[in-house]
Specification:
Blueprint: H1 5-10, H2 34-44, E1 55-59, H3 66-79, E2 85-91, H4 98-109, H5 120-134, E3 137-143, H6 151-164, E4 169-176, H7 187-192, E5 195-199, H8 205-219, H9 227-239, H10 244-261, H11 268-288, H12 292-307, E6 322-323, H13 324-337, H14 345-357, E7 361-365, E8 375-379, H15 383-395
Parallel strand pairs: 1-4, 1-5, 2-3, 3-4
Antiparallel strand pairs: 6-8, 7-8
């Protein structure tokens, strides 16, 4: 029987405000990140005195509070109401080229000129003219900066712009999950950076528990979430790289299950049930946002996992492991099928490292029973699902 919206909305729920469980929600206080917030504020504070701050690069795994802390600092920065100091936030997953980053800069500062018909040089000159006229210091917050396709050009342009300015300056706050992202920069771009670096450590189980307690108090009816469920979600997330986003997703999905069942209280049973669903959602999201060549490598592993590698019988206690060399052979063929130029074996090894770091594959070094020394690769998720996700991404 079909339900009406009125029926759906009138159903009882243990949620009071599900928005507070979103990773985009910024609470008034961020538990266990006071030191990091203070450090970010110290680095950018010269802008409020009319001086150009040093650039800052922030690293840390997903769910360690990097973006939340910077957005929290931005709110406090704006409260200072300083006309000659401005922070501009750019989500580089969306604005993923130099042109798009400057287009966002125009939308925030000169919206009348923010038309995509204008060329990059027009945007650049208008920003320089604006800064020369008001002596502003602009701090560009580049979230997921490693997603920018022409990163080298962007960094070089932003830092070299200071040479064209008679007043004010541009600084960068770059946020990345990858410590190695600067390896992509040309030496001349690296030389223009005068930066400070910070690493956000993963949250511990106790820290995750207090974060969940804060959000549960705001987001649910009193007594709707059992303490044991909070403890379990915190422990699971601490094992999974100390990821607060994962912990929040577990509690949210567990609560949705309770609402569906009409069970009343979120228990450990519901957190365990939520884990499978959340893991699958995260894997789909992670695959869909991978660079194309990493997706093709993963596609090759999935294809071989389904068909059985030609050399799998050579591997003792096989357990669905594949030989790295055979996967690379498959990748070379699959890249051409997707109309992409395959990358070298050196890049291929880097792609494997990234995929393993994301938990999409597992690798071990070959031991006794094999001639030579090679890497064995095993898929962490069902190959059929991975193939279909990548085909949808690559062929659309």
């Amino acid at each position: 029987m079909l339900s009406s919206f009125q029926e759906i909305l009138s159903r009882s729920s243990i949620f009071r405000d599900r928005n507070v469980l979103s990773p985009h929600y910024i609470p008034s206080t961020l538990p266990h990140r006071e030191k990091e917030i203070s450090a970010v504020m110290s680095v950018i504070s010269p802008a409020l005195k009319g001086e150009k701050p040093r650039s800052l690069f922030i690293y840390g795994k997903t769910g360690t509070g990097k973006t939340s802390c910077v957005k929290h600092v931005m709110e406090r920065f704006e409260e200072m109401k300083n006309d000659t100091a401005k922070m501009c936030y750019v989500n580089c997953r969306i604005y993923n080229t130099r042109y798009r980053v400057f287009h966002k800069l125009m939308k925030d500062n000169l919206p009348d000129y923010a038309k995509t018909g204008y060329g990059f040089s027009f945007f650049y000159e208008k920003i320089i003219d604006l800064m020369n006229s008001n002596g502003a210091n602009i701090i560009m917050v580049l979230d997921e900066v490693d997603m920018v396709k022409d990163l080298d050009d962007l960094v070089y342009t932003l830092t070299r712009a200071n040479d064209d300015l008679k007043a004010g300056g541009i600084s960068i706050v770059g946020i990345s999950n990858k410590l190695s992202f600067k390896d992509r920069l040309d030496p001349r771009s690296k030389s223009t950076l005068y930066e400070t670096e910070m690493v956000f450590p993963p949250y511990t189980s106790n820290q995750l528990r207090s974060i969940l307690e804060q959000r549960v108090k705001l987001g649910f009816s009193e007594g709707a979430v059992d303490e044991s469920a909070i403890n379990l979600a915190a422990a699971m997330s601490a094992q999974d790289n100390g990821d607060a986003r994962y912990a929040l997703k577990l509690i949210m999905r567990a609560a949705e299950i309770v609402d569906e069942e009409g069970a009343g209280v979120v228990s450990e049973k519901h957190v365990n049930a939520a884990r499978k669903s959340v893991d699958e959602d995260i894997s789909i999201e992670a695959i869909s946002t991978l660079p194309q060549h990493q997706q093709i490598v993963l596609y090759s592993i999935a294809s071989l996992s389904m068909d059985g590698g030609r050399y799998s019988k050579l591997i003792e206690n096989n357990e669905n492991y594949l030989l790295s060399g055979e996967v690379y052979e498959n990748y070379l063929r699959d890249a051409k099928n997707f109309k992409k130029d395959p990358r070298s074996s050196r890049w291929y090894r880097e792609y494997l490292n990234e995929l393993e770091m994301l938990g999409l594959i597992n690798t071990v070094e070959s031991g006794k029973g094999m001639r030579g020394h090679t890497r064995l690769i095993k898929l962490a998720y069902p190959p059929v699902k991975i193939k279909s996700i990548i085909e949808k991404n690559m062929l659309e």
